[in-house]
Design a protein that fits this description.
Elements: E1 4-5, H1 11-27, H2 41-50, E2 53-58, E3 61-70, E4 87-95, H3 104-118, E5 123-129, H4 133-141, E6 145-150, E7 159-165, E8 175-177, E9 180-183, H5 193-198, E10 207-213, H6 229-236, H7 238-241, E11 252-258, E12 264-266, H8 270-276, E13 285-291, E14 297-303, H9 309-318, E15 326-331, E16 336-339, E17 345-347, E18 351-357, E19 364-367, H10 383-389, E20 406-412, E21 416-423, E22 426-428, E23 436-449, E24 452-457, E25 461-464, E26 472-484
Parallel strand pairs: 4-5
Antiparallel strand pairs: 1-2, 2-3, 3-4, 5-7, 6-7, 8-25, 9-10, 10-11, 11-18, 12-19, 13-16, 13-18, 14-15, 14-17, 20-21, 21-26, 22-26, 23-24, 23-25, 23-26
Length: 485
């Protein structure tokens, strides 16, 4: 059996076939098709006239029919997909009720993919009612991936969209990430600006951290369909993250809202963490300042020159004595600070920032400003470990980044690089080696690639995969792009 292009001779037979299939669906309680509304005689005649309708016979019986198109429906243009820049689609896939469950649908889809591949398409796309469990099972069995939800005019309920690559070299789309949040008593210093400024669904009134791209257990970020980042890494592997497919995901990206100042803290390096923290990675990080009070935000960035370990130890034991040893700096929106492992630091009151870091949650607190919770309890400190890893000579100043259009590399460290991007038209992004994380920090930008695009508003992030097409950002705004070092 193979698909045959329909001609005018088969019109009456195909009309009767589609009416029978639609009536059968309604009899079974599936309200996806209603003959005369969708599909209709006018649609089927037009499909035949255009040469888009194909059918399959088993003996004398018309077993199945499907509409094939190179390119896609205009309604698909604004949707988010996983694969490809030269799509083909199929619609109105129908199997005779007496043959459903006999594998006919799989045979049709095999022929569909061969046809579209020969026509030069690099991916195939389709959609079906979210209540059509037989179709959903068939598509997933054939290797199609659910991408999102859509709704056709006058339809009942939502449809699930699916796609599948047709070639080994088919490029992946950027993957928009939905964050996890840390708030409440985990971030007593947090505020409400992640919700108020960026529209984040923070749930808790006090939320300090939006984990935009995270593999932390219990705090995993997700794609538009709810799949966690670890699940995506397992599914896509090298095509998504290149040489990191078989290694720990190397980055963690957060947006931080500090209504109050954070604790004075320090993070261990790789060697210390491996030896003392069950093989965990160390934590170096960098900040891109997003917002501060008008007069600037105060940050703790290292210790005052001349501070010795004994001075620090005695001050820690005295509690408030630590404050006089801290190196305070002023920062303003656009400033960049690199915080290597061992650097004592804290975020000041009223500061919002973008933080890119190694994928570790290890934090050793020196001092928490004598802050107490509702029960009068103070947060746990980790003085012994903090003193072990503190680099007393780590004192620096923020890097002031000029607001120039284009792509500017502001950090290039062993653990990550950071570019800042500003445009009022369009800027081509650098070539991606393994993967990148793009976060819009001002305005709204479209990620453009080979005739397709994905829109990100301020505060949204997307992973740019290893085998993505060449990309550019278009619009009026700014972004940050991080890559592994």
């Amino acid at each position: 059996m193979e698909l045959i292009q329909a001609t005018a001779r088969e019109t009456d037979e195909l009309l009767a076939f589609y009416q029978h299939v639609a009536d059968n669906m309604e009899e079974k309680g599936l309200q996806q098709w209603h003959w005369g509304r969708y599909p209709s005689e006018e649609m089927i005649r037009e499909d035949i006239e255009k040469g888009d309708l194909y059918y399959l016979r088993e003996g004398e019986l018309l077993a199945a029919a499907v509409v094939l198109m190179v390119g896609q429906e205009p309604a698909y243009d604004s949707l988010t997909w996983t694969w490809g820049v030269r799509p083909g689609i199929f619609h109105r896939l129908a199997v005779h009720p007496s043959l459903q469950g006999a594998g006919i649908g799989g045979i049709v889809l095999d022929d569909v993919m061969q046809y579209l591949r020969r026509a030069g398409c690099d991916c195939v796309r389709c959609d079906t009612s979210e209540k059509n469990h037989h179709a959903i099972h068939l598509y997933e069995k054939m290797g199609f991936r659910p991408c999102g939800l859509m709704r056709w005019p006058d339809s009942i309920g939502n449809n699930i969209t699916f796609d599948k690559p047709l070639k080994r070299e088919t490029p992946m789309w950027p993957i928009r990430m939905t964050p996890a949040f840390r708030g409440g008593d985990k971030t007593p210093w947090g505020g409400s600006r992640l919700r108020e400024v960026y529209g984040k669904d923070t749930r808790e009134d006090i939320t300090g951290e939006s984990l935009e791209v995270s593999c932390l257990p219990g705090l995993e970020s997700r794609d538009d369909m709810g799949r966690t980042l670890p699940e995506l890494l397992k599914e896509f592997g090298e095509k998504m993250v290149g040489s990191y497919a078989d290694r720990q995901f190397p980055l963690l990206l957060k947006l931080i809202d500090a209504r109050e100042r954070l604790s004075v803290q320090v993070h261990p390096g790789d060697n210390y963490a491996a030896a003392r923290e069950n093989g965990d990675s160390g934590k170096s990080e960098a900040w891109l300042i997003l917002d501060t009070p008008k007069e600037g935000g105060e940050l703790i960035y290292g210790l005052k020159p001349g501070t010795t370990l004994q001075h620090l130890k005695e001050a820690c034991e005295a509690g408030e004595g630590v404050e006089k040893l801290l190196n305070r700096v002023k920062a303003f929106p656009g400033d960049v600070l690199f915080i290597p492992a061992g650097c004592i630091h804290a975020v000041g009151e009223g500061v919002m920032l973008y933080e890119i870091q190694q994928p570790s949650d290890l934090t050793y607190r020196f001092y928490d400003w004598n802050r107490t919770d509702a029960n009068g309890n103070r947060r746990e400190l980790h003085l012994d470990k903090a003193l072990d890893v503190a680099d007393l000579k780590c004192t620096a100043v923020p890097v002031r980044v000029e607001k120039a259009y284009g792509v500017k590399r502001v950090l290039s460290e062993d653990c990550f690089t950071l570019d800042v991007i500003r445009t009022d038209t369009m800027v081509t992004l650098p070539e991606i080696r393994d993967f990148a994380i793009l976060t819009v920090t001002e305005g709204a930008l479209n990620i453009r690639f080979s005739g397709a695009s994905m829109k990100l508003k301020a505060g949204e992030s997307a992973i740019l995969p290893k085998n993505a097409a060449q990309m550019a950002v278009e619009g009026i705004g700014a972004a940050a792009m991080a890559t592994p070092g």
